[in-house]
Design brief:
mainly alpha, about 140 residues, 3 helices, single chain
Length: about 140
C-alpha cells in the first residue's frame, strides 16, 4: 500500500458512494454506465481480483432491493394511498429498474467492503520485470 495507513470504514464507504478507488479514493471505477476500468490510474489497484470477484455485489444489490421493495409495499399498502394492486405494480416496476441503477453502487460497495476487510497486497509494477529477476544469484 505504498506506506500509506489503512483508511477508516467511513472513508471506505464514502469512496464507495462516490464510485472511487477503495485504496486511494482518487481513481474512477467506471468508464461509463456499465464498463469498469481494469485498474486505478492513481494507485494501480487492480479492481477485479479474480474471475467472479464481483459476484458478492449481486448479493448487495439483491439485499438492498428486497428490503426497499418490502418496506415500500407495506408502506403503500397500509397507508391506503393506492390500491393493493397498484402497490404491487409500483414495487414490481421498482424491483426491475432500481437494481439496474444501483448496479454501479453495489459493485463499488462490494469493493469497499472487501478492500477494508481484506486489503489487496501491493502488486508488482509492470516496470519491475519478472519476479525471477529479483532473486539473488549464488
Amino acid at each position: 500500500m505504498n506506506g500509506t495507513k489503512r483508511a477508516s470504514y467511513t472513508t471506505m464507504l464514502w469512496r464507495a458512494w462516490r464510485l472511487r478507488c477503495p485504496r486511494c479514493g482518487e481513481g474512477w471505477l467506471f468508464k461509463n454506465w456499465i464498463s469498469m476500468y481494469p485498474m486505478c490510474p492513481w494507485c494501480e489497484l487492480k479492481y477485479e481480483r479474480a474471475p467472479g470477484y464481483f459476484l458478492g455485489s449481486i448479493y448487495i444489490n439483491y439485499g438492498v432491493t428486497a428490503v426497499l421493495v418490502t418496506v415500500g409495499y407495506f408502506a403503500l399498502f397500509f397507508s391506503g394511498v393506492v390500491s393493493p394492486e397498484a402497490a404491487m405494480w409500483i414495487v414490481a416496476v421498482f424491483a426491475v429498474l432500481f437494481p439496474i441503477w444501483f448496479f454501479r453502487y453495489a459493485r463499488s460497495l462490494w469493493m469497499g467492503f472487501d478492500h477494508f476487510w481484506d486489503p489487496a497486497p501491493d502488486e508488482p509494477s509492470i516496470l519491475d520485470g519478472p519476479a525471477d529477476d529479483k532473486r539473488e544469484l549464488r
